[in-house]
Design goal:
By secondary structure, this protein is mainly α. Helix content is about 80%, strand content about 0%. The chain contains 18 helices and no strands. It has helices at about 5-15, 25-55, 60-90, 90-115, 120, 125-135, 140-145, 150-175, 180-210, 220-250, 275-285, 285-315, 320-350, 355-380, 385, 395-420, 430-460, 465-500. Helix 11 crosses helix 17 (about 430-460). The protein is globular.
Length: about 525
Amino acid sequence: MITAKKQQEFGKWRSFFWPIYAFELKKVLPMFLMFFFISFNYSILRNTKEVLIITAEGSGAETLIFIKTWLVFPCALLFTIFYAKLSNVLSKQALFYTIITPFLLFFAFFAIILYPNRESLHPSTAADAIQSILPEGFMGLVAIFRNWTFAIFYVLAELWSGFMLSLMFWGFANEITRISEAKRFYALFGIGANLALLCSGAATIFVSNIRQKLPEGVDAWGVSLDLLMGLVILGGIATITIYWWINRFVLTDPRFYDATEQVKKKKEKPKMSLKESFLYLIKSPYMGFLALLVIAYGISMNIVEVTWKSQLKLQYPNSNDYSTFMGYFSTMTGAVTVLMMLFVGGNVIRRFGWRAAALITPVVLLITGIIFFSLILFRENMIGFIATFGTTPLMLAVVIGTFQNIMTKSCKYSLFDPSKEMIYIPLDQEQKVKGKAAIDVVGARLGKSGGSLIQQGLVMGLGSIAVITPYLAAVLVTITTVWIFAALALNKRLAMLSSQGIEPQNMKTEEISVV
């Protein structure tokens, strides 16, 4: 006979691994699938945009530094203003459809029209003439002009993550999810994203290896690109369908959503402009420290990734080989992150609080980053030692950099993102829409562009990524240290609010340690 104590222990273990009630599957499962398809597209687009830019004629990892500064950030700013304007005139559903449709149309147009005609569209002769005049450090800037259709693809693929992941999905999730549900749901939503990495990685590997079955003279990467963009279109259609189903059948169920439960201000205020949102971030320590976390993550990852990808291109100069490797990278990242989310993410947030969840990512990035840069800087002194493992210094740098990226991204997806998103829940609707747009789109891009500006100045002054590596290592240590202190300051701010009995926007005092 099962005693009451054993039943209680069983319930405790069940909630540890699966904190969802059966009736909640009607809400959790479609949100899970929606995040899966958005992340599936994100993974494919991320790998594809890098293959196009890094392996293009007259280009390399240095080009990423310039494109994030001169194209991605300005376009993110313009899109944010456009989004803010649309949010004032369109319903939530119309806004979602208006944002996602142009992305899908462009990716189809790129595969069908732009890429097949790239040779006639790209001004290679003019780019060669310009490069012959400018110093070597300007190669990345000239590469944007040389491969302008690839640059546009890169920008739209980059904006997909900012708008579809951060604004469209998480904004929607924060709108329809109660605080009590978020503690149990959010880590599970992320599992859908990382299962998508597993699937998209396998799909990328399969599609990239298709060249082995094609006859001579056929553009193997062109065929792979067509198939990848076809998968992106199908993923987008699935996302739209699920979003419609949630609005039609879930949000009409009072068990899952009640508009009267949404946090309201005591006094109605006019809608904030984008400028007012920025001013709010500056004046509010609560949101200001959160913005600093996002910016620090962008700068740190940008610095590490560009250096790693410069090594990656040296090892895999062929587009399909590079794409195949990125497919394996996505698969490994997804597998590790799923394990992190199942056994680490949600349980760290619930058991150890917000501070632990927020600190793990910068600490992991700092430690693994130091190991990676140390290998590059001192590998000439370790050639004999590395040879005993049957590999080369270049390949070992690729492997260590891959490990560094996988560990950092898995911590980011399983811990940093959920803890960051939970900060928005107690805010009123105006702050969620405009403040989140400023932090997640502009703030994230400012972080990446900030890292790019640092590297851009060093590359233009010294000539190449190989030369500036010691300086990048020093910048990484500085930025991650600032990130850690900002997380501690935000946690201290939450503790002060709790001790003073001040509850931010109806968040219960006892929940502050979790959020």
